[in-house]
Design brief:
10% strand
Amino acid sequence: MGDLGLSIAASGLDAQQTTMDTIAQNLANANTPGYVNETANLTTLAGGDSLGVGGGVQVSAITQAADGLLLANSQQAQGALAQSTALQQVLSGAQAAFPEPGSDGLSAQLSSFWQAWDGIAQDPSSLAARTQVVDLAQNIVTTLGQESGQLTQLQTNAQSQLGSVVSATNALLGQVAGLNQQIVGAKGAGTDPNSLIDQRNNVLNQLASDIGATSRTMPDGTVTVSVGGIALVQGSSADPLELSGAPGSLAITSSTSGVTVPATGGTASGLLAAINQYLPAYQSQLDTVADKLATTVNTQLAAGYTATGAAGIPLFTGSGAAGLAVNPAIVSDPTQIAASSTSTLPDATNDGSNAQAMAELYDVATGPDQAYQSFVQELGAQVQSTGNQVQAQTSVANAAQENLQAVAGVNPDQQMVQMLSTQQAYQASAKLISTVSTMMQSLLASV
């Protein structure tokens, strides 16, 4: 009987020691990203004596407090937040290219340009008034070109960032495949794979944030990673990604099959939306402003005449914000501006009625001013909308993470309470060993 008591007490010491080691591991990793709280599961050992006394206790397994649904919700929320954040950053950069309202903004330059035509109307023979119009036109052309260039640079930067995200994603997919293989090997060898699972969870979280990946745990302990319903990791195999196409139709595709992988979340999705949708739309709207400016001004000039009675020639040449230019002929000779509405001499020399008509085009509904104001207002509204999305999704992501941590995270207070309970059980087992040993020694001494 004494041997049985010592055996039971020794099993208690071993089990409580393992439990304390597990608690120590939890406390040491309380702030480790991706770590999942572990529990030493104790089970009764069957006894072998005739009275039915048990054989003590053992640790049957070290399990993780994992919750697949909460983990998936957290990863999905992080992916949505990363998507909105990436898009917001690009759109904010686009908005910064258009400093409105401001004294140096295009709106102010257009306003000054139209007002300058009043100077010609009031004094058609003034070379200074005509030169001012040409100078202001050149300023507008320069500003349009710079703004177009900034949008192009934003698109280049976004595409470069997307390429980096795809490269990082390929490395992460490879890590998941490698960890899948290690986890299966650890289970087959009867060793604890929990630390490997923690590492894999970290990688899966990053994949969710980068590209909106989702994961599903398989019966053998591996995870299948998918993006937009397309499996990229299965077991120990990973399918790398690549970029294909040009801005406006840029896509993430499988390097193996060439199938388009529809990124529905994560930083990659936000960048793709910026590259394919928002930035091209902004560039198109800015080109429309430039083309409306050229059409409005050149059409009015075509209806007028110079001081010599010659037909008016265009002030602007080219098209689009990047291609618009001031007619070199007028730059070198501002007297070719068709300020008159008559070709009859000498009336044409001192007639500024066409210039006056030009000055009144500042608020025409089909003119560049209205087009530019609509563009800037739309851009501002979209920046504000994405900012609101970021705020809302930050709250959702934080709540999802808190819910996950409440189940899978380490609560130091709870761990300390469990440590005290385990310590008491350990001391009781140790006391039992001491008591049984003393009893056995007394029994032997009395014989």
